[in-house]
User: What shape does this take?
Amino acid sequence: MSSLRRILGQLAPLGGDAFAQLRAGWRAQALTLLGIVWGAAAVVMLLALGSGFNEFLDLGIEKTGDRFTEIAASFTSAEAGGARVGRRIQFTTEDLERLEAGLPSAVAVAGESERMVVAETPHRTRATVLALASPGIARIRNHHVARGRFYDAADETQSRRVAVLGAGLVEIFFGDRDPLGRAIQIEGVPFEVVGILEEKGFQLMTNMDLHDRTLFVPLAAGRRLLGHGRRIDQFLAEPHRLDETPELIAEARSVLWPQHHLPDAEQDGIAFYPVQDIMGPTLLLGVGLQLLLGFIGTVTLAMAAVGVGNLMIALVNERRRELAMRRACGARRSDLMLQLLVETLVVVGAGGSLGVAAGVAIVAAVRALPLGGFPQPVLQGSVLVTTFCVLVGVGLAAGVVPARLAARVDPSAALRAH
Assistant: This one.
């Protein structure tokens, strides 16, 4: 404990002396300092870029829905009641009703189909994506209404011809006019625009197009428009809690398997795709990229630390008489090692502080640029903490060899040589 108190007591005066020497000889150390500045700035920029890419992926998933499980129809792989293998499963409105009633683990269930249609207003005629979906889709897909409203259960029950526009379709179809309350012709049938969604921008996972360029209509009205009868392409179900996803899937199996006469051994006729399983590999890719960028920045800083180490070794050789005098006056080897470590950390810390400031400024400047759909760097607290830890590690590593050389100075030989 006494040794620790002695070391802590030396840090302040040693640090002050090191700063004084750095100020006096900064010209001779300019290139070394510049390497540390660039290395620290590179660590900040690369880690911020990795954080921005991960946030970009997270937002891309969240905008499309980050909790639901997709239930998709496919072809059977097992015989059941004389039915042949490879039978196509087709979802219907009865399946949707049974799922809505039979999934206590679900906070929302929706049926969804998407088709390309021709939409027309007096301003423009063009092909666009039409999403036929039950009202629960607004919660599941994270649709937020900017103006007006999203269609509700009454619109669905009464097959009302109402439509909600993705944010990107407003100017396309209506120019500078307010679309609320106006009609849009979908395959020649008029639908009243009742709502406009908030702009989502980039999305990581969609079926046919971004939601900003999609028309949304009630499932019942859309099926009647396109002559789908009772058919539905897929279902989406969102659990109350994400950890209830396996329970939700089990409940959906118990509802759908008897309805479609599937044996318990059937695995392929109806597939379940939790969004976290679909996007898991992509998110791991983002984490891997961030680690790679952090490694590259650390290597860049470590290369600059080599220059610091060489500088400190040169200083030890120049100051052998000074170090010998300290040893002759009673300084311990540990005192000399501590002195050189503190001096190295001051050099690394000074250059690192300038580098961090430069990195932060560059990140702020890049974020101010109009990058469109590209990920922007994100300066999180973890980026600065990681950079600080890397600087400390690099400083200690760069100071070890000079400190050991200083501790080995032979007072008698050094004084005789001078």
About this structure: Residues 90-259 form one domain. The chain is about 55% helix and 15% strand. The chain has two domains: 2-61+281-417, 90-259. The chain has a mean pLDDT of 80.
